[in-house]
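Retro notes, structure queue

What went well: the backlog is down to a handful. What didn't: a couple of records were mislabeled last round, so from now on we paste the full input next to the output in the thread. Example, using Class I SAM-dependent methyltransferase from Paractinoplanes ovalisporus:
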Amino acid sequence: MTVNTCRICGSAVRPCLDLGRQPVSNAFPRPADAGAETFFQLAVGVCTGCTMVQQLDVLGAEHMFTPDYPYRSSTSAGLRGHFAEVAQWLRETELTGPDPLVVEIGSNDGVMLRSLARAGIRHLGVDPCVGAGETAARDGVRVRVGFFDERSAAVIRAGEGPAQVIFGANTISHVGDLGSIFHGAVRLLADDGVLVIEDRYLGDILAHTKFDQIYDEHVYLFAIRSVRAAAHTYGLELVDTEPLDMHGGAMRFVVARPGRRTPTARLARMLAEEDRMGLASPAVFDRFRAGLETIAKDLVGLLTDLRAGGSTVAGYGATSKSATVTNYCGIGPGLVPLVYDSTPEKQGRVTPGMHIPIVDAARFAEPYPDYALLFAWNHADEIIGRERAFRESGGRWILYVPDVHLV
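Corresponding output:
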């Protein structure tokens, strides 16, 4: 459904970017089913009131978060380390009282909650994807299969009591009805509890031309000012923010009941910095659009020249965001004949829209290509370190953030 009014405050939304016809980013079809995917128009706008950046045409959650949803957080060593640190941070700061409860929205395969489960912390994951929930349960994580909203929050509170922490990482921005999350938090939070949101940050996306962070699941691109406005709209208060390195640039937002926590000096400083950056201004998005068009031109030109010169090229990382890159740029098997990926659920399938075959990353050296296009650039240090034999053999990595370059 296409909208021209803000889903949060009802103000007019100013269109600012159109990335064309795009498929469901995590629906990797079997080769026999290629061509039957669901497509939509990937365009975003800026609310003229609360400044929330949001998609204009949003797919229903049933199209994106299916029972066989293939993404698994635990496949990344970087994410495993990050969520272990999150669990420790919560234990030291928020989960210090008698028998506290933590509820995670979009718990996936339990990568964060398993640390708390092993420490004996009362917990519950809420996730609509059956396969991910089963994986988490095998690691001792309690999971409720379904979506988090006010109704499920009421059921959880009746059965478990209030939550000291509600946590959501790379999840909250996926929910078109953002009010359902905040209303659920109001229903479930303890009086002095906190809602902790970790998500990709608009300021980082715009500053470094990370246009592939825009795809179907990211209904919203969060900025500090827009999250503060949304929290206020639904009866809560943003009290702190913290930049994170996760996913190539993210932000942690800490939300509480009004008046229960003193907003930090860091929050005030970062709001002032956002004002200086002018994140909601048309000029910022004009520069962003020009930057992504340059990247698309340079990337297709490089791949075309390499293939014409007889070089072998492969992709690495069948990521959600690679759907935006390949479909916007028109990169198919003729330029990138295959993509290596370590997720078993994706192997043997093809990429959404452009239908590039996906192969087990364990076969990357059979033999190495001359060049590898790193779609999973947010895990570049981890992947390049793990695949150091590729570079030692003379292979070169192709990266396209913040510009097209070889490593």
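Agreed that this is the format going forward. Reviewer comment attached to the example: Residues 73-258 form a domain with the Rossmann fold fold (CATH 3.40.50.150).
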